[in-house]
């Protein structure tokens, strides 16, 4: 989209503005709108969630925005049920519509989380994706949504949610896990995998 916008600018517009640094604008747009994440996979197709794999991440973003606008003054970023599902996914239950990625894959190799460490040490392909920031769920965002939601809309399960949040808080954080909701992660692949197994040995 940034490239298309830059292409629309005429030379006369650039001259009027004293010269537009198109490369800098492109870098700024991409840097603010997208984030580069990585995922260990055995093959290209291992980038789809186990459920709802026909749903796009952007549709989740739109639905969440629509829900928030209809509620008037929402306090949490994600709907409570989705936030809980994201939390369970981070705790190892992957039967939810999310795919896990990381910012720094090298930190998985020595992770205190044995599942994360096993993935990094047993998978020999590291894929790179550049995804919209608005479609990425972070652990802090998930915790915040659960914390705010349980005090507003689901007071009957506060004790269970508190225990759940404590468990999430004990999850190792150096891996910078990020969740992508939807089955179209392959659309955002920006680098074909290279063998990484030798690098970790």
Compile the SSE list and pairings.
Elements: H1 2-8, H2 11-16, H3 22-33, E1 34-41, H4 57-71, H5 80-90, E2 98-102, H6 114-122, E3 125-132, H7 139-152, H8 158-169, E4 177-181, E5 189-195, H9 197-200
Antiparallel strand pairs: 1-3, 2-4, 3-5
General description of the model:
By secondary structure, this protein is α+β, with helices and mostly antiparallel strands. It is built from nine helices and five strands, in the order αααβααβαβααββα. The protein has a three-stranded antiparallel beta sheet. Helix 5 packs across helix 7.
Task: Name the strands of the widest sheet in spatial order.
Answer: 1-3-5
Note poorly predicted spans.
69-76, 197-201
Structural class: alpha+beta
**Run of helices and strands:** HHHEHHEHEHHEEH
Gross morphology is globular
Helix content: 40-55%
DSSP, total strands = 5
**Beta-strand residue fraction:** 15-25%
User: Would you tell me the overall average pLDDT?
Assistant: 75
N-C termini distance: 40 Å
Sheet with the most strands, sense and barrel status = 3 strands, antiparallel
Number of helices: 9
The whole-angstrom Rg is: 20 Å
């Amino acid at each position: 989209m940034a490239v298309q916008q830059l292409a629309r600018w005429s030379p006369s517009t650039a001259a009027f503005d004293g010269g537009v640094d198109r490369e800098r604008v492109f870098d700024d747009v991409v840097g603010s709108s997208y984030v580069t994440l990585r995922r260990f996979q055995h093959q290209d197709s291992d980038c789809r969630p186990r459920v709802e794999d026909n749903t796009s991440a952007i549709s989740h973003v739109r639905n969440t925005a629509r829900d928030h606008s209809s509620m008037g003054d929402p306090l949490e970023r994600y709907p409570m049920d989705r936030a809980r599902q994201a939390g369970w996914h981070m705790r190892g239950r992957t039967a939810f519509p999310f795919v896990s990625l990381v910012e720094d894959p090298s930190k998985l190799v020595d992770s205190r989380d044995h599942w994360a460490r096993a993935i990094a040490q047993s998978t020999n392909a590291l894929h790179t994706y550049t995804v919209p920031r608005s479609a990425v769920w972070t652990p802090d965002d998930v915790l915040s949504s659960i914390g705010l939601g349980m005090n507003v809309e689901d007071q009957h399960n506060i004790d269970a949610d508190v225990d759940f949040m404590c468990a999430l808080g004990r999850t190792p954080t150096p891996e910078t896990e990020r969740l992508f909701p939807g089955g179209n992660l392959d659309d955002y692949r920006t680098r074909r995998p290279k063998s990484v197994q030798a690098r970790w040995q």
